[in-house]
């Protein structure tokens, strides 16, 4: 059971008071973001109290976060978790150096496509050869980090945005290429009708500057298990 940190809410409406308890491991901005979203958005007002005491979590490992994102490309979260479990069991520990020691045949046998094997290898090479400004990410802007990561084979904007959300825990990322986000917006805001990127962007206007937080709750509305990379 996670520890809960209560944030005082004097004379706050019941709906808002219910969402300001967050895990100690949550981003520092989580309670503030939840209060904003509950006030500004009718769907968030309904969703957020359902997951009180829960929040975005980071695995704390840049390489693993990016590797998991690559493995999870274009497959469902459930399939991605199963595939990652097999792949991550191959090396003694999932580090760039250990991954580069794996045999291609073993990675293919675990279920990776040849393309994803190539992507993971290039990712590991970027880390081992120091091609990434890992010590500067904390102070770099979102778009600068996205541009740097997209130089890695197989890392597109979606993968870079997952990294911003799940590793750097940036608060205002809106991953419009994410099928789950689009599906969740369709379900929660449009009664299941098809949703365009423009529709999703319009919905997200009320979420700013906490789009990452709202996206996390949209994902939760679709899956009882938290999305994590």
Automatic annotation (TrEMBL):
**UniProt keyword Translocase, yes or no:** no
Enzyme Commission number(s) of this protein: 3.2.2.21
Keyword list (alphabetical) reads:
DNA damage, DNA repair
Top class in the EC scheme: hydrolase
All copies of domain HhH-GPD, residue ranges: 71-223
Q: Which reaction does it catalyse?
A: Hydrolysis of alkylated DNA, releasing 3-methyladenine, 3-methylguanine, 7-methylguanine and 7-methyladenine
Q: Name one GO cellular component term.
A: protein-DNA complex
Q: Does the keyword DNA repair apply?
A: yes
User: Which Gene Ontology molecular-function terms are recorded?
Assistant: alkylated DNA binding; DNA-3-methyladenine glycosylase activity; DNA-7-methylguanine glycosylase activity
Q: Which CDD domains match?
A: ENDO3c
Q: Which family does it belong to?
A: Belongs to the alkylbase DNA glycosidase AlkA family.
Which protein is depicted?
Answer: DNA-3-methyladenine glycosylase II
Q: Record the organism.
A: Comamonas antarctica
């Amino acid at each position: 059971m996670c520890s809960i940190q209560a944030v005082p809410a004097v004379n706050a409406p019941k709906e808002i008071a219910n969402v300001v308890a967050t895990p100690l491991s949550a981003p520092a901005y989580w309670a503030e973001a939840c209060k904003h979203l509950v006030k500004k958005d009718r769907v968030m007002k309904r969703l957020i109290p359902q997951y009180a005491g829960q929040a975005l979590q980071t695995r704390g490992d840049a390489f693993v976060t990016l590797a998991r994102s690559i493995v999870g490309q274009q497959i469902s979260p459930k399939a991605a978790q199963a595939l990652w479990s097999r792949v991550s069991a191959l090396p003694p520990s999932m580090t760039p150096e250990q991954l580069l020691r794996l045999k291609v045949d073993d990675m293919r046998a675990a279920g990776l496509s040849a393309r994803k094997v190539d992507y993971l290898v290039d990712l590991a090479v970027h880390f081992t050869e120091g091609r990434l400004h890992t010590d500067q990410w904390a102070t770099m802007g979102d778009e600068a980090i996205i541009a740097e990561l997209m130089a890695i084979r197989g890392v597109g904007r979606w993968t870079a945005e997952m990294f911003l959300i799940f590793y750097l825990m940036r608060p205002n990322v809106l991953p419009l290429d994410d099928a789950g986000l689009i599906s969740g917006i369709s379900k929660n805001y449009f009664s299941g009708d098809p949703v365009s990127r423009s529709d999703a962007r319009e919905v997200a206007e009320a979420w700013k500057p906490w789009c990452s937080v709202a996206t996390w709750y949209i994902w939760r509305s679709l899956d009882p298990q938290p999305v994590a990379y």
